[in-house]
Specification:
Blueprint lengths: L3 E3 L2 E2 L2 E4 L5 E12 L10 E10 L5 H12 L2 H9 L3 H11 L14 H16 L4 E5 L18 E6 L14 E4 L11 H11 L7 E6 L9 E6 H4 L1 H4 L12 H17 L8 E5 L2 H5 L2 E3 L21 H7 L5 E4 L5 E8 L14 H12 L3 E5 L6 E5 L2 E6 L6
Parallel strand pairs: 2-5, 3-5, 6-7, 6-9, 7-8, 11-13
Antiparallel strand pairs: 1-2, 4-5, 9-10, 11-15, 12-14, 13-14, 15-16, 16-17
């Protein structure tokens, strides 16, 4: 399996017997090194070697986080173009945590100041628990919350992987969600779903959202969202949206892959697919293979969705009829799997097809989550207990 990620970055990784949990070694070549993997025309300019101890528990999650950082082209360009080793070291520290980063003065327009002041008043008047700032409105990397936000727990919602260039200590939490639309607050549902699964926010919390058009440098929208009302049908009487056997980072990763498939398709064509996550033993009793299982016989670590090198593999097999069955810890159990769940009386919204019907049925029959990418509309929908929650509609107009 190749270790080339794209953007001129290779990420070789190995688990060995050692006392430390992790060791990273960085190599840089401005001229570039040829390689035999996919995209041979692209030269490798940066090699990030990651060594992990044999007993390290969160190995794949750290690997995925490093890979996400390495896919940020602007960050990689900064590393490759750094004039000397000291500058390279500073950029690395900034990207991998920003421990030595100094806060830059925030340039705000008078309208932004007014919006933040009004957001603070609205949050107080509506008894909000959080204020969420959608940071991708600003084209710059640094963003501080308004001084008045100190009375609330604050959340920064951003697609940027370079969290080190956001003054992380100024926000109580950062939720990283990629945006596929220029619409205002387009990341809100995905971000708050991630926040609920991580335990950052509760299902009964109320959030004051401050946003605008991404990249416009202008905040112009304030929305108060009551999560219990927003996710009423999906949560029902449950206090937790996430089934107990599913890791939050696994759900985040599957949603990320689904959204990328929705936008990018495969080889220029729209793709529809279904991911069934969790409750694997119960789900397997309702399935049968349509093709030979492409994941059979591999080590669990090699076929886990948390591994950044599985993205292209999953996208390649998304063209198969049937579903992906994924264990709660991220291990891919099968692809090209027919879901044969018991029939039940349920009225699906207009426009939903056989994948949505299968997703709804299996989510009722078992304690799983089912994520559907529609081939016709590109809409990404998540099902829990037969209830549908659209996460994204394929729209780029704003």
């Amino acid at each position: 399996m190749t270790t080339y990620l794209g953007n001129g970055v290779a990420l070789p990784h190995l688990r060995i017997r050692m006392k430390r949990r992790y060791v990273f070694a960085i190599g840089r070549c401005k001229v570039g090194i040829s390689h035999d993997g996919p995209k041979k025309e692209e030269k490798i300019h940066l090699i990030i070697l990651m060594l992990a101890g044999e007993s390290t528990q969160n190995y794949l999650k750290v690997l995925a986080d490093v890979a996400r950082l390495a896919k940020d082209k602007a960050f990689i360009d900064d590393l490759v173009g750094a004039p000397d080793l000291d500058a390279l070291s500073d950029e690395l520290l900034l990207g991998f945590g920003g421990m030595q980063a100094t806060a830059a003065k925030r340039s705000e327009s008078s309208i932004n100041k007014l919006i933040f002041n009004q957001a603070m008043r609205i949050a107080k008047g509506t008894n909000c628990d959080f204020i969420a700032v959608f940071g991708d409105v600003m084209s710059s990397d640094r963003l501080n919350p308004h001084e008045g936000f100190a009375d609330f727990k604050s959340i920064l919602v951003t697609k940027r992987a370079k969290e080190g260039k956001v003054v992380a200590s100024s926000f109580d939490n950062i939720i990283q969600v990629r945006a596929f639309s220029k619409g205002r607050l387009a990341q809100s549902r995905s971000a708050f779903l991630v926040g609920i699964t991580r335990g950052i926010i509760g299902v009964n919390d109320k959030i004051c959202c401050v946003g605008g058009i991404p990249g416009s440098d202008q905040f112009d929208t304030i929305v108060v969202i009551d999560l219990r009302s927003e996710f009423r049908a999906l949560l029902a009487d449950q206090e937790s949206f996430l089934p107990p056997d599913i890791l939050p980072e696994v759900l985040e990763r599957v949603i990320g892959i689904a959204m990328e498939l929705s936008v990018e398709g495969r080889e220029g064509h729209a793709v529809g697919t279904l991911f069934v996550v969790g409750a694997t033993k119960a789900v397997e009793e309702l399935t049968k293979p349509l093709v030979l299982n492409p994941f059979y016989g591999y080590k669990e670590e090699e076929c886990n969705v948390l591994s950044p090198f599985m993205d292209e593999t999953v996208k390649e097999y998304s063209g198969l009829d049937g579903a992906f069955v994924i264990r709660g810890d991220g291990v891919l159990i099968s692809a090209g799997t027919l879901i044969h769940a018991p029939e039940y009386l349920h009225m699906l919204p207009s426009g939903f097809g056989s994948r949505h019907a299968a997703a709804a049925a299996v989510s009722v029959a078992t304690e799983c989550l089912a994520i559907v990418v529609s081939a016709s509309s590109g809409q990404v929908t998540i099902f829990r207990n037969g209830i549908a929650l659209p996460l994204m509609e394929k729209s780029f107009d704003g």
